[in-house]
Each structure stands twice: as structure tokens, then as C-alpha cells.
Amino acid sequence: MKNERGNSRIAPWVFITLYVCAGVIWLGAQAWVLDYFDVSTHQQSVRWQISLFIAWLLISSAVAARLIARKQRADQVRQETAQELELVVRYAPAGMARVHVGGAEISWANAKLAGWLGCSVESLRGKDFRALVPADDPAEVALQIERLLDGSLDHFQTLRHCTHATTGKVTPVLCTISHVAASGVRGPVALVCVLQDLSEMVNARNALTRSETMLRMALEGSGSGVWEWDAVQQKLNLSSGMGALLHYKGQDLARDFDFYTRVHPEDAEAARLDLKETVTQGSMLVLNARLLCFDGMYRWFRARGQAHKDPDGKLLRISGLLTDQTASREADERRRLAATVVDNTIEGVVVTDARSRILSVNNSFTRLLGFTEAEMLGQTPRMFKSGRHGKEFYDAMWASMHATGHWQGEIWNKRKSGEVFPEHMSLSAVKDAAGVVTHYVCMFTDISAEKAREKQLEFLSHRDVLTGLPNRAQFARLLGNAVARSKVDSRRLAVMLLNIDRFKDVNDSYGHSIGDEVLKHITAQVQGALRAEDIIGRLAGDELCVVAQNLNDNDDAVEVAERLMAAAAKPWTTPDGLSVVVSVSVGICLYPDHALSTEDLMQGAHAAVYGAKSRGSNAWCFFHEEMTQAARERLALEARLRKALELGHMRLYYQPQIDLRTGQLMGAEALVRWLDPEEGLISPARFIPVAESSGIIGQLGLWVLGEACRQGQQWRTAGLPELTIAVNVSLHQFLLTDIAGETAQVLAASGFPAQSLELEITESALAEQPEEALAVLNRLRGLGLRLAIDDFGTGYSSLAHLKRFPLDLLKIDQGFIRDIPHSCDDMTISSSVIALGHAMGLKVLAEGVETREQLQFLQDKGCDFFQGYFCSRPLPAEEFTRLLEKAGAGQPLVDLLSVEDGVVI
């Protein structure tokens, strides 16, 4: 039988019983020996018996000694085992306790468990183990204990935790439970619980979790993900961060991701070769390629990895990191561009350290300063000081730098050649994270040219470029000063405007370069004729203005004007020996006789020069109030005309054009009229010149063209007879606007047929610029409309040019018709024009026919058409409609056989 510690234990009565039995057996053996040896004598029997007894004693003593020795050795072993067990229990890193099965009372526990619970070993006896060391899953523990007691298990493990009674520290433990039985009692009577501290394991696991989390965050934050290709299972494994990296929104990235289909076509071959080299040679994989992400965008990635093989060289797997390089590549590109910009910018850039020692310069800096980079490195910008700025300037500059970290302004520096030049400089401090200045960056621009331009602009703001004379603004200031002095001194002065006669003819004949030379020549001659106190300036292209001061009377002004006219008339000789002679007209306005202010004096001189020109070239004229009044009326009429166009006060009247063979209506000329609400009809002779001089004629002509086509189409829609509508085109409209383009737009908008529209261009317009006129006429002819030359015989056009023009009709000016039959010259001219027109294959129309004699003459000479009061005055559209209705009935508007003087309708 063994005790609870496993040692053999024999009860005392067993030893006694065994000893008695051994004695009985010995006595029996003794009788057998005596009988066997036939020992009968009494004395001899006694000796045998004594001998046998002594042998018994010796044998039993030896047995007893051996048993005692064994017992001593067993007790020693038991003592050592108990001591070892006590040491193990006391110093083991695990907590231990013996717990009764029924109430879970602790019968004994070691110091480790007591330390975890924060109490003494003695205080634990009799305490409820379940309350002190609660299980994470009590129900599972109860089930396992049942299985332990019924013999299904010999031990089990469960997670529990110990809470320190004082500090509240919780120690997680792994509890291993087994059962023990008491001596002589069958079945388990107690549980032995061994508790292992899991704190380090839990902490290690938590640290591992934190490390994995931090690694994942670092990878995701750095734009990286982990990938692995399992060559054995032919499977791709990807980290969770790869989905965000590739902008994947699905559920199975490893299934949906195919590297070779997503690599950019331009990078596919290089990627394939890099992967092949990694697999075959086992080298490190470094692959840069563009991948098509799942959002449809290509992005740059860097794959770094390593191939893993078994001892036989068979590929097991390839694993590594995938990093998004798009941002870094873009940053590199921006840095490269920035560096390129810095190197190639026209501004000089220099970088110094905190002690102003030069660290780097760009190409522009070396070019602008003349030093090489090697000559400047390690130096300070003081080597560029010009000496033009004092200590106060630099103190203020550095005070601004220390206060704001920036300074900019103009500064003078010195090149290597010693040349001092101005520059616009921007100086900035570069600070580290602690706010300490580490570098200075200086950018500057050479503003020498800008300063020169400013000086030139300053000159140009006051001077005329060609002649060097004061311009209009500067001349007005000088005139103002002269007027102020004359007012103080009570002296007279004259403002004389010199306008060069027929200066346009000089430019057209010899070219503008010659015209400029002539103008400079006249300026020099006039300057030479001035007195010391006189002032001269250039107001416009062909206008010079002189202020003659300190005059006594009008004769002094006339004397100065004639002297200036004589000086300007001196010929200028070209390099080819050709002499060019021009004259000037002079308008004179006196202070204080004619005007008192600067503006009025110049306005008066302008008005007077027009008076001088009206007298012919090379003339002078004093200012009169009537000249200003006429100019003011002209300006007022221009303003009224602009407003009339906006308000729709313009009207079109139509004058019939008659076929001289049949008397039938064949066309009409559209004539503009101004129906003013207050003044009534205003004559075209009054407002057309104003429209031409002010530029309104272009807008007015376009309105006439559009209104004529609109009205013509309205008559056609009403079923009235077809007719040609003639519209006059002014010189300005013909040469300075896109008349062909505007006509095409009007025809398209109105629907009026081009063949029913006739444009009348004056002969002077064709003679002005014949080549340009020919190009415009060809464009108009391309539209399909008719072309007529108006007022023929008044423009002095060349017949060589005229025969090239694509014309349909010549119109004889009414000035040649008015005096027929009383003027032989007019009759001759009219006959010649008719014959010339027919010779050129053109139709001829006579304007201004008012008498039967005129009509008869034109018939005799074979003229084709006429218009004039003999048939009808120009009529508004409503009245002209009735003429069309009459023509539609087949009635001639003029009876050519029996007509009397007067109007026939």
C-alpha cells in the first residue's frame, strides 16, 4: 500500500503476524530437521535446538536489520521528496492550491498564488477558490469537473484571473486542474490547481497586435502593401491595404487582380524581364511600372520583393512590398521642373547660408553679374555692393528681414566689369521647424532696360517721337504757363495752328517714309524761324502749333505767321535729287482778343485753320466766332444723328428708274431721309457730310442696305412686279468696312435675291484706291448682285482702271444733265459718257432728268434709263407701293411719245 505521496507503507500488525508465522514455520522446520537427523538423546536434542534457535535469531536479526535499513532509506527518500515538493511549491513560478471538491475550499496554497491575490498563505485556507480565482467560463469549468470526477479526464485547463486585493491588479492565468485521493479512500477527494501567469504572453500578444497594427498603418500611410505569390499553391496573397492602394471596391482582390493585364503596355516587357530574372537568379526584385487601378486611372508603383526557394532550387514563393510612387514621382517632377525653372528663369537666384555665404547660384545670376559660380561660392553678396547705398539703407533692409522674414525693393549692384546697374530684388529668409533662419534666398531682375523704358516713356509722354517736339499734352501745359504769364504781364500772344497742305498727297505719292522726312524738314525750318520766346509743338500728323508771345498787335501775329509759312515752303530734296515743296495754312487765335483759356485758344486756332484752307493753300486766317458756332452746330447735329439711328427716325424714300425705250418701271433708287420729330425732314445734303466725317456713315449705310432689302422682299412677297433696288455705298463704307460680308448677311437675313440688288459706288471711291476697290468689287460680283458707278465724270478715274472693274451700269451725274440743252459742254460730256458706257458693254442711266428736252436728248443719244422729277420725286414706301401696283397693271409711268413738260404718273 502506498501513501498519498506514493511511498510504500506496511502496518505494524502485518509485521507481527509475519514474524509469528515465520516462527511457527521455523519450529516445524526444526522438528523436521531433528527427526531427519534422528536426534534422540535429550542432551543432543537440546544442543540442536539451541543451535537452530541461534540460527533463527541470526536469520531474523539479519532480516530485521535489512528491513530497518530499507525503512531508513525510504524515510530519507521520503524526506527529500517532501523537501523538494515544498521547494517546488514555494518557489515555482506558478500558483498552486489544493481545493476540496464540494465547497471549493482551499486546503493549502503556495505563496505565489497568495502574492497574486494580495494576501497571506494562512488567510487563504478555507476560502472559496471560485470567488478568489474566478473562471472566464464557469459553466464550462463545471462541466469539465464532472468529467474529471467520472474518470473521463485526468486533467483540464481553463482561463482564470486573479485580482490583487490591495492594488486591484488583474493577473490572467491558465489553470490546470487534476484530482487526488486520500489514503485508504477510493475515488477523488480533492483537486490540485496549478496556475500559470499569462501576463507576459498577453502583453506579448498585445504588443504583437500593436506592432502589426502600427506596421499596417505605416504601410498604408506610406502607400505600401504586402504581396506574396505562393508558387506551390499558385495563389496570390495580398494584405488588406492593397485594396485601398489599388482603389479596389470589390470583395476578392486576389481573384480580380491580374498583374500582366493591368501593367501599362509600355512597361509590360520590362516588368516581365525583371520578374524572370528574379525567379531564375533569385535576385532582389525592384520593379517600377504603371498599373491600371480599379478606378480606371494608371498610377506609378514600385514593387520590391525576394524569391524564396527550397534546397533543391524549386521556387516556393515571391513576397515583397508594393508602394504607390505616383505622389513621389509627381513631387520629383515638380522639383525637377522647379529646378529647371530656377536654372532657366531670366531672374537671378542666389542661395546663402545663415551667415550670408553663397551656396548656389543659377545661370541667370552668373550671366547678369559676370562672375562664374566658382568665383562666388563661399563669398558673401557684399562683393556686389555698388557703393550707392548708405548704411541706413542696409540697416532698414535687414530690419525688415528680421521683422517679417522678407524684403523687396530696388537696389543698385555692381557687375564683375565694374558696371553699376539697377535691379529689383526680393530677399526671403528660410527657417527650420524651430523658427531658426537656416538660409536666405535672393531673386533679382535687371531693370536697366525697364528704367530706360521708363525714361523713354517719360520722354514720350511729353514729346513727339518723330519730331522731338512737345506733344499735345505737353504743349497744352506750356501754353497754359504762357497764358498765365501774359495775364500777369498784360501782354498779347497768338496761338498759330500750322496745317500742312495736301500732306496726304505727299504720303500717297512718295510713301510715308518720305512723308516723315518732309515733316521733319518742315519742323526744322519752322523751328529755325521762331523767336527765342516762342513755343512749338506737334498736335497731330500734319499739324504743328506755335505760341507767339509778347505781341503788340495783329500785324505782329501776321508777320510771325508769314515768316513761318515762308520757312515751311522751303523745298526738301530727296537723296535722288527730287525736290518736294509743300505749303502750310495757318489759323491764328489771339489772347485776349479771341479767347482767354487754353482750350478756347486751341479750339479757335483749329477753327481758323479751316477758314484758311477754304481760301486755298498757303494762307492764314484769324479766328471769328462764326467759325466756332458752325463747329458746335456740326457736333450737335452729329449727336442728334446718332440718337436718330438708335430711335429709328431714319426713313427710306424710293425714286423710280424708267426704261427709256418702254417707259416702264425697271427699278428704284433707295434714298435715306431723316424724319426728326421736332424739325421734320432734314435734307441729306445737311446730315450726310456730317455722317461721313464722323464715321457714322458706316452704320447708316448698313441700315439703308438692310431696310432696302427688307422692303424689296416685302414687295416681292405681295406679288408686285420685280424691280431692281439701287443702294448708294459711301467711300467710307466701301473701303473701310467689310461691305461684301455685310451684304451677304443682309441678303441671307432678308431673303431678297442678289440679282435684284444694285450697289452704286461713286467714281471717287474707285479712284481713291483702285486695286483695293477691284478686290472688293470682285467679291461683291461673286454674290451675284449688280454694280453701278455713280456720279460718273466727277471722280477723275483712270479708264485703264475703269475697264477692269466688273460693272453693269454707268450713272451720269445730274450736274451734266441740269443745263441740257442750254450747255453745249454738258451735252458733249453726256453724249461721250453714253457712248463710252455702251462701248464698254455697260448700261447707262441719267440722273436728275426734269424736262422733256432733257429726256428727248437722252433718247436721241441712246441712253438706257433715267430717273428724276420728270417722272417722280423720291417717295416713301407706302406711296411707291401704289406706283408698283400701277406698273403691275401694265401701265407705263411715262408716255414717251406724247409727254408734255411736267410730271406724268
Can you offer a commentary on this structure?
Helix 30 (824-839) links the parallel strand 29 (809-812) and strand 30 (843-846). The chain is α+β, with helices and mostly antiparallel strands. The radius of gyration is 64 Å and the shape is elongated. It contains 32 helices and 32 strands. 47% of the residues lie in helices and 24% in strands.
Question: What does the secondary structure layout of this molecule look like, with pairings?
Answer:
Blueprint: H1 12-37, H2 42-91, E1 95-100, E2 106-109, H3 111-117, H4 121-124, H5 129-132, H6 138-149, E3 155-163, E4 170-180, E5 190-197, H7 199-221, E6 224-230, E7 235-238, H8 241-245, H9 253-256, H10 259-262, H11 265-281, E8 285-292, E9 298-309, E10 315-324, H12 326-344, E11 348-353, E12 358-361, H13 363-369, H14 373-376, H15 391-404, E13 406-414, E14 420-431, E15 437-446, H16 448-460, H17 472-489, E16 492-500, H18 503-510, H19 512-529, E17 535-540, E18 543-551, H20 554-568, E19 572-573, E20 579-580, E21 584-591, H21 598-614, E22 620-622, H22 625-647, E23 650-659, E24 665-676, E25 680-682, H23 684-694, H24 697-717, E26 724-729, H25 731-736, H26 739-750, E27 757-762, H27 763-768, H28 770-782, E28 786-792, H29 799-802, E29 809-812, H30 824-839, E30 843-846, H31 852-860, E31 865-866, E32 875-876, H32 877-888
Parallel strand pairs: 21-22, 24-26, 26-27, 27-28, 28-29, 29-30, 30-31
Antiparallel strand pairs: 1-2, 1-5, 3-4, 4-5, 6-7, 6-10, 8-9, 9-10, 11-12, 11-15, 13-14, 14-15, 16-18, 16-21, 17-18, 19-20, 23-24, 23-31, 23-32, 24-25
Helix pairs in contact: 1-2, 18-19, 19-20, 21-22, 22-23, 24-26
